[in-house]
Amino acid sequence: MNPVFDYRASRGAQIAQVESNVRRISQYEYRVKSQSGDWEYTVIQTEAGWNCSCPDFQFRSVKCKHAIAVELSLQIRRRIENARRVVPLDYQSCLSCGCAEIVKDSLIHNKSGVIQRFLCKGCGDRFSKNLGFEKMRASPESITLAMQVYFGGASLRNTQKALALQGVKVSHVAILKWIRKYVSIMDGYLKDFTPRVGETWRADEMYIKFKGKMQYLFSLMDDETRFWIAQEVADSKERHNPRGLFIAGRNIANRVPETLITDGLPSYRYAWKKDYAWRTTPDKKPVHIREITLEGAVHNNKMERMNGEVRDRERVMRGLKNTDTAIIKGLQIYHNFIRPHEGLNGNTPADRAGIMVEGENKWRTIIQNASHARKETN
Ligand SMILES: [Zn+2]
Ligand SMILES: [Zn+2]
């Protein structure tokens, strides 16, 4: 039996992604834009469930895409309100004890210039404003700019040129060193957060070339939030066993998907049965949908968007000289936590998954907090 993709659920999710599509009139009444955009349907919550003014509901009395959109947008709002927040450290108060009795301490002279240190009169702790960037020759601004430009799709050499325009002279080898160092610091911190992802996931694999060698990057993505849950690099597409990827996804998200969408690769079927084919809620049976397509064939909107994201990843990978897991980790961090997503109304996948990184420079916010957390545990 080949399970059918739930068309209404997929359309409902699409509508809910754009905030302005669902208007709240009262606690029980909502207006939902029709997909053509020139009409609104009235969705009302009753004791018996949702009621919608659209023909699909009126004539077939099924839960229509508008009711699904209202439910999802309420979920999204709740998740954003209850998100864990990672905020920039403002240095107005002590990072250790929180008290505001901060005075200027000694100056440190290092390669990037002079850095003011501060002393907390409450607990005696000393700290500087470049937390996470101590002993670096370049400023936090230059380092985070390099990461932004590089993961935004530029080659290492073009990243170097972008920095040169800012008056920062640095070799591309040094930039790669920064990237490795800071990706590892960020990853160590971010991996303790559990993304609250949705119930439909996709597994996909893309071809990448490392050192002239053909390799595959396997990924698990959440359909609703676009959160890139887990990844793994393998030598071959057919012989690779994705169980490691699936188990990693389960551990990171702390759940299994109710629906998994993959291509026709037989090993996905096997891993799904072993690791995901469990009933998580009594009334729902887990489903594995295999979209069997020709290589590169695009047959619906959603796949097209996914392929676009794959291409984004490919652009950054192109300049890679060897299998560098730090680069792939960095891409994942950039995708999940940094880059605003057009399809998510300018949110990041992490925002939607309940982890909100704040501040003008999200790289810096994460690095500050990661370094502070490391200091605390040492
Ligand atoms: Zn409707
Ligand atoms: Zn203190």
Gist of the model:
This protein is an alpha+beta fold and 378 residues long.
Strand percentage lies at 15-25%
Rounded radius of gyration (Å): 24 Å
Q: Any ligands, ions or cofactors bound here, and which?
A: zinc ion
Largest sheet: 5 strands, mixed
Characterise this structure.
The protein is an alpha+beta fold and 378 residues long. The chain has twelve helices and 14 strands. It has helices at 7-16, 55-60, 65-81, 140-151, 156-165, 172-190, 243-253, 266-275, 301-317, 325-338, 349-352, 362-377; strands spanning 22-24, 29-33, 40-46, 49-52, 84-86, 102-110, 113-120, 126-128, 200-210, 213-222, 228-234, 259-262, 287-290, 355-357. The strands form four sheets. A five-stranded mixed sheet has the order 11-10-9-12-13, sandwiched between helices. The chain is globular. The N and C termini lie far apart (55 Å). The model is unreliable at 294-301 (pLDDT under 50). One zinc ion binds at residues 94, 96-97, 99, 120, 122-123, 125.
Task: Provide the fold topology.
Blueprint: H1 7-16, E1 22-24, E2 29-33, E3 40-46, E4 49-52, H2 55-60, H3 65-81, E5 84-86, E6 102-110, E7 113-120, E8 126-128, H4 140-151, H5 156-165, H6 172-190, E9 200-210, E10 213-222, E11 228-234, H7 243-253, E12 259-262, H8 266-275, E13 287-290, H9 301-317, H10 325-338, H11 349-352, E14 355-357, H12 362-377
Parallel strand pairs: 5-14, 9-12, 12-13
Antiparallel strand pairs: 1-2, 2-3, 3-4, 6-7, 7-8, 9-10, 10-11
Helix pairs in contact: 1-3, 4-5, 5-6, 6-10, 6-12
Bound molecules: zinc ion (2 copies).
One zinc ion binds next to α2.
